[in-house]
Design a protein that fits this description.
302 residues; alpha/beta; 10 helices; 30% strand
Length: 302
């Protein structure tokens, strides 16, 4: 599998611990790669480097073998980009902006653009200055996807979108993968990353913590159940046996959260049959839970 985006020991230090520090990883051609982290962790800084807007203090980044800083004009022609902060030029309506984008990209056929406008329910004839945040975001998304670029760089692409439009965006991103495009996206919405990404990178305070593959956060991996016991004796008996990992417990209300492997399901259910339960509830193991565990443990730096 060939790499189309390469970030090599890249650092941008803004002082006081702000910036990105020694980022080093590759993104494979045709994959969807996610970047997640708290505000100020370096998501936008990373994507701006890839667009050539920022020069790193050390290290470098490349897209398809081209240095992002030295060949920014060439890269901009080949990449669909949604910035984290949208600021349109004063060109009147959304239609005018999209037509100008088409001219810059040498596009003559606007049929796919019109399909995108319909899918996002975009009022493209509205003045850009009067558009809501959501409408501006939709306009930026149409501009990024309209030329069907081979590479998409999306910085918090669902900002301002309602849940239905977020689902439309997820469908669109998955369509890009089907046609062979590479998508590099940042997001703070874990479900969005779970539904789309082949790999996800965790960053925290400007440092790379971990890169995980889809199979590591697939819902079939860890099993988590919240269980409540009728009486204290049985509650403490279950804990004392220690047959399963207890990730959280509450002695006062006699409930706990148990984690076990997929092949231990029958063993778990058989043991529960010995007790009088108030309730049992399955808890899907999510990417957000995995991320929270890593951060709470202080991170595991790559």
């Amino acid at each position: 599998m060939s790499d189309i985006i390469r970030i090599k020991s890249m650092t941008k230090d803004y002082g006081n611990g702000r910036g990105i520090f020694d980022f080093d990883y590759s993104i494979h051609k045709g994959e969807i790669f996610g970047l997640v982290g708290t505000n100020g962790s370096g998501k936008t800084t990373t994507l701006r480097h890839l667009m050539g807007f920022i020069k790193p203090d050390s290290g470098s980044c490349e897209i398809d073998g081209l240095d992002c800083r030295k060949n920014s004009k060439e890269i901009m022609k080949r990449v669909g980009y949604v910035p984290g902060e949208i600021d349109f030029p004063d060109v009147g309506s959304g239609d005018n902006f999209l037509r100008l984008q088409a001219q810059l990209l040498g596009m003559k056929d606007m049929s796919y653009t019109n399909q995108l406008i319909d899918r996002f329910k975009l009022a493209a004839d509205a003045p850009l200055r009067r558009m809501s945040k959501g409408m501006k975001q939709k306009t930026a998304l149409v501009a990024a996807f309209m030329s069907k670029p081979d590479i998409l760089l999306l910085d918090e692409p669902s900002t301002g979108l309602d849940p239905l439009m977020r689902d439309t965006l997820i469908e669109l991103i998955l369509e890009q993968k089907q046609r062979g495009a590479t998508v590099f996206m940042s997001s703070h919405i874990f479900k969005e990353l779970e539904d789309t990404c082949d790999r996800v990178a965790f960053i925290h305070n400007g440092k790379m913590i971990e890169i995980i593959d889809r199979r590591m956060y697939d819902p079939t991996m860890p099993k988590l159940y919240r269980i409540g016991f009728e009486n204290k004796k049985e509650y403490f008996s279950f804990i004392k046996k220690g047959n399963f990992t207890i990730t959280r417990k509450n002695d006062k209300y006699r409930h706990l959260i148990v984690q076990f492997k997929d092949n231990e399901t029958n063993k778990f259910l058989c043991e529960l049959a010995e007790y009088n339960m108030r309730y049992i509830k399955y808890i899907p193991y999510t990417l957000e839970m995995y991320y929270t565990e890593i951060i709470e443990k202080g991170g595991k730096l790559l």
